[in-house]
Design brief:
Two copies of one chain form a homodimer.
Chain A (H helix, E strand, L loop, with lengths): L3 E3 L2 E2 L2 E3 L3 H5 L2 E9 L6 H15 L6 H11 L4 E9 L16 E7 L5 H7 L1 E5 L19 H13 L3 E5 L5 E4 L3 E6 L2 E5 L9 H7 L7 E3 L3 H6 L2 E6 L3 E8 L2 E2 L4 H13 L3
Parallel strand pairs in A: 7-8, 7-14, 11-12
Antiparallel strand pairs in A: 1-2, 1-6, 4-5, 5-6, 8-9, 10-11, 10-13, 13-14, 14-15
Chain lengths: 269, 269
């Protein structure tokens, strides 16, 4: 079964003049497929299309991209990374006036520890890597991910499951590969991604569910200390409780378990 | 004549699982070659090696990389982009513990307007694209360059030659593909790249020249308004006077012309 397509053709490489490689001039989506279906496709597509508008990329036809993802998706569960680059050409940083965007879809293995993390929770550390703030590309799932690479490297060295990322101004932003929800005083709070971070598809799906009330607010370490529950969420691994941040331990709460039930019913169908 | 080498082998593409493509997990140098020689090699190498330490990449042997660059360099003047990626592997953002870094050297055309800009100067605009501040990767020439791509796109739409970039906190940082020097009240000033921007090789060379006194300070739009001279510098196009920023015009000054003479004597040999 073919593992990767470049503009619809089987392949294993990309042209070395692709602007995605040269400058990180790309958007991507990491999409969970269950028996050939992507339950969160509508949310992925919405973010990708919005990202294309902000970066000035021409979005492909939705049906075409979804069909290509399906061609590489195999088995009961897998992940497909769908990448849209600004293609080749231009004058150094300056892009071509009418870029021919390039589509790359690649199959990935399902994360082996996702099920365990959903059940047992995750141990987090506070990352020493601060995210730059005031980013004009904040919220997008773009190809400029060196901050996440450095944070993941440090997190692995410490043997933690994930890490909390703050920005340069001590505002809480997200985890390395997930968004955050903090339950405190009966309110479910999530940090804004207007200045740094990724506006996640798992979180967007959750916010769209009837009965789910999530407030986007500015958060700091104070709310982490006071939290009754902390959880992380992304579109592939789903909703996972946080049982520790550094030396501070947290119980797995009722909100997390209720939302996991919603997820199981609505996404992992 | 071969135009590109991947780990020393002629090629035109890179593996699609290269972390440089997936996450911008790479460093690069854009190196001017004159008759097969790179006068600023020592400064490029110093920055690349420092970047490797900060990102946890294993630097290649200096002789090997320089030799590969020379193999693709042709003619009286050309540019070679030398890229060092973290290679393939790892678990998503998390890099492999011992990455096998990948070297890519690619020949590029000499910028056609560099000579004219040196003589006649450049017209700049103030970019609406603000650089994120407090970046842990500030100063490095890494592969996360979407801010520059967006700024270059806007600059081209306005028909300007270059653009001034401020950060989210209104601090002046650099031009899109050059560092900045502002002469005001008899002092030559350049903005810090500790929080955003690239620590340029052309500027580093200039600072190392006897008799050149450059102060690194915090700069805002006020100093631009008060400037007696403004110039931009990068390692390929050299030192170019700025004759306008938006509607504000500037004369080409004696400092710029004196440093251009230094450049001509020391670099464009």
């Amino acid at each position: 079964m073919v593992e990767m397509l470049v503009d619809g053709q089987p392949g294993e490489s990309i042209p070395a003049d692709d602007r995605g490689f040269l400058y990180g001039d790309l958007l991507f989506e990491t999409i969970a497929f269950h028996d050939g279906q992507a339950p969160l496709w509508a949310w992925h597509w919405r973010r990708l299309r919005a990202g294309c508008e902000r970066l000035g990329l021409t979005a492909p036809a939705e049906d075409l991209l979804l069909e290509e993802c399906r061609r590489v998706a195999v088995g009961k569960r897998c992940v497909v990374r769908a990448t849209l680059t600004r293609g080749s050409g231009g004058r150094a940083y300056e892009p071509p006036v009418e870029p021919a965007c390039r589509r790359i879809v690649q199959r990935r293995a399902w994360p082996s520890d996702a099920d365990r993390f959903r059940q047992e929770g995750m141990r987090l550390v506070t990352s020493p890597v601060r995210l730059a703030s005031g980013s004009v590309i904040a919220g997008l799932k773009h190809g400029n991910r060196l901050e996440q690479v450095l944070a993941a490297r440090h997190c692995a060295e410490l043997g933690a499951d994930e890490a909390l990322l703050y920005d340069a101004g001590d505002r809480l932003v997200e985890a390395i590969a997930s968004n955050l929800v903090i339950v405190v005083d009966g309110r479910a709070l999530t940090p804004s991604t207007d200045s740094a971070g990724v506006s996640g598809v798992g979180l967007a799906w959750l916010c769209d569910q009837p009965g789910v009330a999530l407030e986007t607010v500015e958060l700091t370490a104070r709310e982490v200390d006071r939290a009754d529950e902390i959880m992380v969420i992304n579109s592939v691994a789903g909703i996972r409780p946080v049982t520790a941040v550094d030396d501070h331990h947290f119980a797995i709460g009722a909100t997390c378990r209720a939302w996991q039930d919603l997820w199981d019913a609505g996404v992992e169908i």
